[in-house]
């Protein structure tokens, strides 16, 4: 295979590009090859990062096929990433590790644990304001689903303000991913409790997704959301 001659960093990058194109099975191949190469050269930070990348691919596979094997493998990669980070004292990666575990417990509908891990992710986070907002809106979603709806809604809106406030220091792609994700999640959560606001948030999410052809996964998610709400 030609791919075997690629550097670990190139394999890692190609895996991420394939995932964003929704080519999930192919993404797994490249991410696993990258992981093997990083392990062989004992690059613990890259191993940690690649495990998290592969977690994302397993997560998206689970969301599309509902196969719990994919969820189990996603959880294993998220847990392994945290173990590597702690064993090698990679404190700069703790926040991302905790964030991924928060995502795991959201998928398992264990919102109390998700709140705990998202809170830890915020505690250790030291990066851009926009990414901090992304973490915060996920915490807000977990709170909302844990039946703390008022606090959850407020936390999500705080996260949205942070995402928008830090847009100049992140790529336009990530900015659009995070902002559309927050609007889409607000629409989903409020559909029964506040349908007027939910429809407004859905429209805002759709405007962002339609304006950026790179948001392939978001486009699929929007289609599923509208289908669930029976919106044309």
Question: Level of helix content?
Answer: over 70%
Detail the poorly predicted runs: none
Overall SS class: mainly alpha
Q: Give the total of beta strands.
A: 0
Radius of gyration: 18 Å
The CATH architecture of the domain at 1-108 is Alpha Horseshoe
CATH topology of the domain at 1-108: Serine Threonine Protein Phosphatase 5, Tetratricopeptide repeat
Major β-sheet annotation: none
Q: Please tally the helical runs, counting DSSP H or I stretches of 4 or more residues.
A: 11
Distance between the termini: 45 Å
What does this structure look like?
The protein starts with 7 loop residues before the first helix and ends with a helix. It is mainly alpha-helical and 232 residues long. It has a domain at 1-108: Tetratricopeptide repeat domain (Serine Threonine Protein Phosphatase 5, Tetratricopeptide repeat), CATH 1.25.40. The longest helix is centred in the N-terminal third of the chain and has 22 residues, at 44-65. Helix content is 79%, strand content 0%.
């Amino acid at each position: 295979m030609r791919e075997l001659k690629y550097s670990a960093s190139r394999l890692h990058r190609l895996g991420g590009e394939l995932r964003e194109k929704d080519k999930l099975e192919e993404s797994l191949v490249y991410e696993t090859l990258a992981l093997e190469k990083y392990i062989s050269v004992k690059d613990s930070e890259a191993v940690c990062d690649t495990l998290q990348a592969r977690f994302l691919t397993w997560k998206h596979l689970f969301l599309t096929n509902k196969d719990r094997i994919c969820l189990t493998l996603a959880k294993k990669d998220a847990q392994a990433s945290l173990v590597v980070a702690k064993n090698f004292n990679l404190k700069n990666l703790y926040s991302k590790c905790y964030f991924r575990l928060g995502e795991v417990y959201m998928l398992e509908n264990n919102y109390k644990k998700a709140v705990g891990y998202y809170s830890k992710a915020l505690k250790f986070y030291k990066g851009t304001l926009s990414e901090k907002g992304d973490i915060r809106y996920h915490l807000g979603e977990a709170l909302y689903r844990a039946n703390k709806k008022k606090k959850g809604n407020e936390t999500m809106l705080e996260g949205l303000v942070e995402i928008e406030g830090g847009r100049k220091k992140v790529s336009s792609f990530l900015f659009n991913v995070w902002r559309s994700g927050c609007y889409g999640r607000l629409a989903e959560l409020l559909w029964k409790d506040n349908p007027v606001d939910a429809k407004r948030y859905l429209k805002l999410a759709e405007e962002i997704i339609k304006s950026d052809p790179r948001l392939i996964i978001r486009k699929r998610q929007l289609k599923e959301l509208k289908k669930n709400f029976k919106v044309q």
